[in-house]
Design brief:
- It is globular and about 70 Å long.
- The protein starts with 8 loop residues before the first helix and ends with a strand.
- The protein has 742 residues and is α/β, with parallel strands linked by helices.
- The chain is 31% helix and 18% strand.
- It has four domains: 85 residues, Phosphorylase Kinase, domain 1 (2-Layer Sandwich), CATH 3.30.200; 268 residues, Rossmann fold (3-Layer(aba) Sandwich); 193 residues, Dimethylsulfoxide Reductase, domain 2 (3-Layer(aba) Sandwich), CATH 3.40.228; 116 residues, Barwin-like endoglucanases, CATH 2.40.40.
- The strands form eight sheets. The protein has a seven-stranded mixed beta sheet with strand order 8-7-21-20-19-9-10, sandwiched between helices.
- The structure holds ligand MGD (2 copies), iron/sulfur cluster (SF4) and molybdenum atom.
- The site of one ligand MGD has 34 residues, from helix 19, strand 20 and strand 26.
Length: 742
């Protein structure tokens, strides 16, 4: 099921052209140009620690240069297999977000909702939470409390929160912003292949002949990975083909041979039509289908009806473009697909994921070098979070709470009585805030995420936090839109101020070193949780003295599982990152899974899962005629608590905007740069109009970065909370709006 090859670093290094002399900082620009800055003598005299960029799931290795307790410089780690020295503009400016005037340096509390926050001691803050939670659990049961986590926490943080909530407090109400992000990819992989996570690796990029980028603005959101794809394309432009499917022609589409500006939400129809063409052109890998899959007859029956001619009008595409894309994918020797939120953030995100994996199964484009479906992880440790069971339906080691055997295994490992872990999955992100709003959940502890900007339909989320009896937030800054409504605000040590591990998009675990001390009384998130657990009386189970002790307990939970990392110790990780599974001390790393065609379902076969196109939850109509889609820009990170403080990044993208097609603008009499409002059934947001033919008529786009602290451009006031029935991931990429002039 796995290969034991080590990273093919020579190959990737050559393709990336990375410099190994270690004295140059290399930053990739939007144009693909690499700007090199020589390091000075003074830079070389800094203390350098190994770390990983805390932004996107590419997981670039960085070296952190510090002196006298301050981070002064970063540069790409030339030996890290994710980036071989390269960084993007966000990674290159990391030092500027560390020492800011609004860093939280001590705990703060307010005695009542309308009171000001005041400095508190750790003991009084944690005692207040413990007293309140004990009372809530006694009176209303353990499901009256909840944790809301983040794919930006490290693996050890995730593990201790899960252990505390699911094993000791007795609630599965532990969910994460990964629910808004990767949940549909998880359910797609699990249902199609039998286990979570991409089968391949980054080194496949240098071996692939066809890239299918669907629902991803890789150029903006995973810039270093995009640079690898771009270089592969530029080196052999006529042999290497790129297909991009996105309703907006972003910079990612610049390298496309075939660009498919599909109507938002129609991916399943497009993918079925592509498979139809592949069948018609005789490009199936029938041997692979027969030997390694189930469900092909049912699949065939469904795609029979999906001719490009029938499907193209619904997708807003030309039939010839669908044919060409399918042909390129079908004839190539090795095809890789990359996708992210355009596929996942949908009320049928699981179906979109299954449909894309179907294409790979039908053509045997999986489990071999240069081929495979590869979901781009959003956050740096969304993958680690899933491994430790950091979603409401999971337990550590890719287990699920609904499975009695899984619960028993974890109960034994945690030394708790059988039956202690509840069998019912907890509330997922959107459900959790709805439950807070209607009073079913009474207190929530939010770690490392800013839901008052990032959740859909924000007025419900706001009502939830207003109605909650006690809101606790761990952050590194104050104010944020979420700390503003918290009763207890706890200062976390952040990137460079603590150590731990994380797993990037390609299942690669890295150890990050601590470079400097955290400011004031700030503590790493895992320590805050362990101190709280002790205040709740769970002393022995949370007596961890270091992240390494937590990591060792966690790895024992992976023994015999698909992600087995019992062979990966801190000592090994301190030398080099390792891709899981890696079950023994002598096992090197797993670049690719399923190379023997044995998938993770009990019968060893992958599943074809046939879906029909489903309309989005809220199609446009007369009153709300435009489709609103939302997403990111290259130089801002999420809710801007960090990138919003970095002048060079702010200069590149200083203001929020609403991207509109000139035809839609003309219909409402809107001109370039005019402030306009988009209104949905739930709320509205305002920003300057940006007119462009890069977006299809009938669709508008707004980034979600700008929250309430920045003004009225808060797009999640308008978005919809409808979610995929399987993954429970909300449809952040589609709702109906109308345009209003000021
Ligand atoms: N600069 C920057 N980089 C980031 C982040 C950031 O905040 N800033 N965040 C990180 C995180 S957590 C994530 S999850 C990733 C997200 O990375 P991406 O998914 O690449 O980013 P988005 O802009 O959310 O959405 C991608 C594209 O989906 C398209 N899209 C919308 N609807 C549809 C549809 O129905 N079908 C298809 N095929 N496409 C559609 C949009 O037009 C958009 O261009 O980025 C990571 N990297
Ligand atoms: N409309 C719309 N909404 C979206 C999306 C979209 O595409 N469209 N995308 C969704 C997706 S994919 C995601 S991932 C979410 C992201 O949304 P969020 O997770 O809400 O965004 P961030 O700004 O990354 O929030 C991280 C918070 O943690 C703090 N922080 C940083 N480091 C640390 C640390 O070490 N410890 C602690 N305790 N705190 C820390 C930061 O200051 C910040 O307040 O947004 C989702 N919302
Ligand atoms: S590509 Fe992602 S991980 Fe790499 S430097 Fe940029 S933001 Fe950081
Ligand atoms: Mo994300």
């Amino acid at each position: 099921m796995s290969s034991e090859r080590s990273f093919d670093s020579a190959l990737s290094l050559a393709h990336l052209g990375a410099r190994q002399d270690r004295v140059v900082m290399q930053v990739v620009q939007e144009t693909g140009e690499i700007v090199e800055t020589p390091l000075t003598e003074a830079d070389l005299a800094l203390t350098w620690n190994k770390s990983v960029c805390p932004y996107c799931g590419v997981g670039c290795g960085v070296l952190v240069g510090s002196k006298a307790g301050r981070v002064l410089k970063v540069r790409g780690d030339p030996n890290h297999p994710a980036n071989y020295g390269l960084l993007c503009g966000k990674g290159a400016t990391l030092p500027q977000m560390v020492h800011t005037p609004d860093r939280l340096t001590y705990p703060m509390m307010r005695v009542s909702r309308n009171a000001d926050v005041q400095r508190a001691s750790w003991d009084s803050a944690l005692e207040r939470i413990a007293t309140h939670w004990r009372r809530l659990i006694e009176t209303h049961g353990p499901d009256s409390v909840a944790f809301y986590l983040s794919g930006q926490l490290l693996t050890e943080d995730y593990y201790v929160v899960n252990k505390l909530a699911k094993g000791f407090l007795g609630t599965n109400n532990v969910d994460s912003n990964s629910r808004l992000c990767m949940a549909s990819a998880v359910s797609g992989y699990v249902t199609s292949l039998g286990a979570d996570a991409p089968p391949g690796c980054y080194a496949d990029i240098e071996l692939a002949d066809c890239f299918f980028l669907i629902g991803t603005n890789t150029a903006a959101c995973h810039p270093v990975t995009f640079e690898r794809i771009r270089r592969r394309k530029l080196r052999a432009p006529s042999r290497v083909k790129v297909i991009v499917a996105d309703p907006r022609a972003t910079r990612t589409a610049d390298i496309a041979d075939v660009y498919l500006p599909l109507r938002p939400g129609t991916d399943v129809a497009l993918l079925n039509a592509m498979l139809h063409v592949i069948v018609r052109e005789g490009l199936l890998d029938q041997r692979f289908i027969d030997q390694h899959t189930n469900g092909w007859p049912q699949m065939q029956a469904v795609i029979e009806r999906h001719t490009p001619e029938q499907i193209a009008p619904m997708c807003g595409l030309e039939p010839s473009a669908i044919r060409e894309a399918a042909h390129l994918f079908g004839v190539t020797k090795a095809a890789m697909s990359f996708w992210s939120m355009g596929m996942n953030q949908s009320s049928h995100g699981t179906a979109k994921n299954n449909s894309l994996i179907n294409l790979h199964l039908a053509t045997g484009q999986i489990g071999r070098p240069g081929a495979g479906p590869f979901s781009l992880t959003g956050q740096p440790n969304a993958m680690g979070g899933r491994e430790t069971g950091g979603l409401a339906h999971l337990l550590p080691g890719h287990r699920v709470v609904a499975d009695e055997g899984h619960r028993r295994a974890i109960e034994s490992l945690w030394g708790i009585p059988h039956g202690r872990i509840a069998s019912k999955p907890g509330l997922t992100a959107v459900e959790l805030f709805q439950a807070l709003a209607d009073g079913r959940v009474k207190s929530v502890w939010i770690l490392c995420t800013n839901p008052m900007v990032s959740l859909p339909h924000l007025s419900v989320a706001r009502r939830g936090l207003e109605r909650a009896e006690l809101v606790i937030v761990n952050d590194i800054y104050h104010p944020t839109e979420t700390t503003q409504v918290a009763d207890v605000i706890l200062p976390a040590a952040q990137w460079s101020e603590r150590d731990g591990t994380l797993t990037n998009s390609e299942r690669c675990i890295s150890y990050v070193e601590q470079a400097i001390a955290p400011p004031g009384d700030a503590l790493p998130d895992w320590r805050i949780i362990c101190r709280f657990a002790q205040a709740m009386g769970f002393c022995e189970a949370f007596s961890f003295r270091s992240v390494e002790e937590i990591y060792e307990e966690y790895t024992s939970c992976t023994s015999g599982r698909d992600l087995d990392i019992t062979g990966v110790t801190y000592a090994r990780l301190k030398r080099a990152p390792i891709q899981w599974p890696c079950p023994t001390a002598h096992h090197r790393s797993t670049m690719r899974r399923y190379i023997d065609g044995a998938f993770a379902h009990p019968d060893g076969r992958a599943r074809f899962l046939a879906h029909e196109y489903q309309p989005p939850a809220e199609p446009p109509d007369e009153a709300f005629p435009l489709i609103l889609t939302t997403g990111r820009v290259r130089d801002q990170w999420h809710t801007m608590t960090r990138t919003g403080k970095i002048p060079v990044l702010m200069r590149r993208e200083p203001e929020p905007f609403i991207e509109l097609h000139p035809d839609d603008a003309a219909q409402s009499g809107v001109i370039e740069d005019e402030i306009v409002r988009i209104c949905s059934r739930r709320g509205s947001a305002e920003a300057k109009a940006r007119l462009t033919t890069a977006i299809a008529p009938g669709t508008c786009f707004m980034p979600f970065h700008w929250g309430g602290l920045w003004g009225q451009a808060v797009v999640n006031r308008a978005t919809i909370e409808a979610f995929d029935p399987i993954s429970k991931q909300p449809e952040l990429k589609f709702c109906a709006v109308r345009l209003e002039k000021q």
